[in-house]
Write a structure and sequence with these properties.
Elements: E1 3-6, E2 11-14, E3 21-26, H1 37-55, E4 59-64, H2 79-87, H3 91-108, H4 124-136, E5 140-142, E6 148-150, E7 189-194, E8 210-212, H5 214-226, E9 230-236, H6 240-255, E10 260-266, E11 269-271, H7 286-291, H8 296-304, E12 312-314, H9 316-334, H10 346-353, H11 358-370, H12 376-390, H13 405-419, H14 423-435, E13 440-443, E14 446-449
Parallel strand pairs: 3-4, 3-9, 9-10, 11-12
Antiparallel strand pairs: 1-2, 5-6, 6-7, 7-8, 13-14
Pfam family, one: tRNA-synt_1e
Keywords: Aminoacyl-tRNA synthetase, ATP-binding, Ligase, Metal-binding, Nucleotide-binding, Protein biosynthesis, Zinc
Domain tRNA synthetases class I catalytic: 20-323
Length: 450
């Protein structure tokens, strides 16, 4: 049985739904830019859970929202609207463009599609209904500035997920929006904001035209698409507070129950030892990896080399290494008979079930790869089964291409030029060979190519 660390209880708990059904919600992307490899690590987490839970016999329904409105940047501007200005494109065109690119990235990483991807902007009615109910039942109020706020003090167990209890939260602490003095309590947050001079991405409501807060979007959509019992809720560690605390307060107040059974958070990814940020200029996209002729699934394998609950450092060297490993494993799988049946290794799957211990699972595969106790056929079967969880396309045959006659001739001429110390000619030939798709290396025992 699959067990996962549960953030609120701070312990490993079995993953179980009602009967054989498992309902999972994963906070989706804010579609104002391409997902970077850190975002993709978090999106891989829900895929891994999906694969492991499915393997354990559960029928998983996964909902992942698309945040196309309401997510504010530090300067309090809507991220999608800000990008729409900088690209001189309609905000909805921006949102759809980056949503398409998000799906493209998921495909390239073999991330299984969610059951549906509801868009915030298409579910505004649900949010309005939720806010009306929260006001009617005394959990929210319309403030003097016209915005609607959630009354944090109406929810006594606020802070249970992150440990950030209300009495310890100081005024002036950043809660995503720094509103003026209209709130009753400094930790209250906006459910609905009046448009004021904003003219795009606004909707009519009983409180005037405006737009939703980011947190209410996830409550409204998760309750609508999954119901009042959500078995598992996934997101990156930074969402624990305030996003998930606020979502929990809203959803529990709306239903009078503890809506989410199991909160799961993935740790962050660094790149070459540093936090990725636009200002530092070190944001890495999946496309950057592909542009270096590294298999995008090498990113997937690199993520899997680390436990989802540990911060990890992705490097170009680890991506290159993962690329070679995948090639080698494809060779290993294709060495089996043409009709290889997958055969799951117990130790491998036990490691996966133990809070997705992918490093241990991969270590087990490497031990099998090296061991002489397994035949080539058995290895092929085990790796094929493991790939149902790993998603590395190991059954794809390694690409073996023959040299063309022209390439062989050029290689021969270049070897000759080198032996004659005619370096100008050898450089000229190297350029031609590289243009034909070969990589050339010069070593102590002559040139080699790949
Ligand atoms: P966003 O598109 O900014 O709303 O983020 C989408 C998801 O990516 C959220 O679950 C974030 O917690 C997660 N995330 C953001 N930065 C990182 C990072 N460096 N490493 C891992 N996950 C991240
Ligand atoms: Zn969310």
């Amino acid at each position: 049985m699959l067990k996962l660390y549960e953030t609120r209880h701070r312990e490993l708990l079995p993953v179980s739904g009602r009967g054989s059904e498992l309902k999972v919600y994963c906070c989706g992307p804010t579609v104002y830019r391409d997902a970077h490899v850190g975002n993709l690590r978090t999106f891989l987490l829900s895929d891994l859970i999906w694969r492991a839970a499915t393997h354990s016999g559960l029928a998983v329904t996964l909902i992942q929202n698309i945040t196309d409105v309401g997510h504010m940047a530090n300067d309090l501007e809507d991220k999608v609207l800000a990008q729409s200005k900088s690209e001189s494109l309609d905000p909805f065109a921006i949102a759809r463009k980056y949503e398409d690119r998000f799906h493209h990235d998921l495909n390239r990483l073999n991330i299984t599609s969610a059951s549906s991807y509801p868009r915030a902007s298409e579910n505004i009615d649900l949010m309005i209904a939720s806010i009306e109910k929260l006001i009617a039942e005394g959990f929210a109020y319309v403030a003097a500035d016209g915005n609607v706020y959630f009354d944090a003090q109406s929810f006594p167990s606020y802070g249970a997920i992150s440990g950030n209890r209300l009495d310890a939260l100081k005024p002036g602490h950043r809660y995503e929006y720094v509103e003026d003095g209209a709130k009753k309590f400094h930790a209250d947050w906006a459910l609905w904001k009046l448009a004021r001079d904003r003219t795009e991405m606004i909707w009519d409501t009983p409180w005037g035209p405006g737009y939703p807060g980011w947190h209410i979007e996830c409550s409204a959509m998760s309750l609508e698409y999954l119901g009042e019992v959500i078995d598992l809720h996934v997101g990156g560690i930074d969402l624990r507070f305030p996003h998930h605390e606020n979502e929990r307060a809203q959803s529990n107040s709306l239903t009078g129950t503890e809506v989410v059974t199991h909160w799961v958070h993935g740790e962050h990814l660094l790149f070459e030892g540093r936090k990725m940020s636009k200002s530092a200029g070190n944001v890495v996209l999946l496309q950057d990896i592909i542009d270096r002729e590294i298999d995008p699934l090498a990113a997937r394998l690199s993520f899997l080399e680390n436990r989802y609950r540990s911060q990890m450092d992705l490097t170009w060297a680890s991506l290159e290494a993962a690329h070679s490993t995948i090639k080698r494993w494809r060779g290993l799988v294709s060495a089996g008979a043409s009709k290889t049946e997958p055969k799951m290794d117990q130790e491998f799957i036990d490691a996966i079930y133990a809070d997705l211990d992918t490093p241990r699972a991969l270590q087990r595969l490497r031990a099998i790869e090296k061991s002489s106790d397994y035949s080539a056929q058995e290895k092929s079967e085990i790796f094929l089964a493991a790939d149902q969880i790993l998603g590395l396309d190991l059954s794809r045959p390694p690409i073996v291409r023959e040299l063309t006659q022209e390439q062989s001739d050029l290689l021969e001429q270049r070897a000759k030029a080198r032996s004659e110390k005619n370096f100008a000619e050898s450089d000229r030939l190297r350029t031609l060979l590289e243009e034909s798709g070969l990589q050339i290396k010069d070593g102590a025992d002559g040139q080699s190519w790949s």
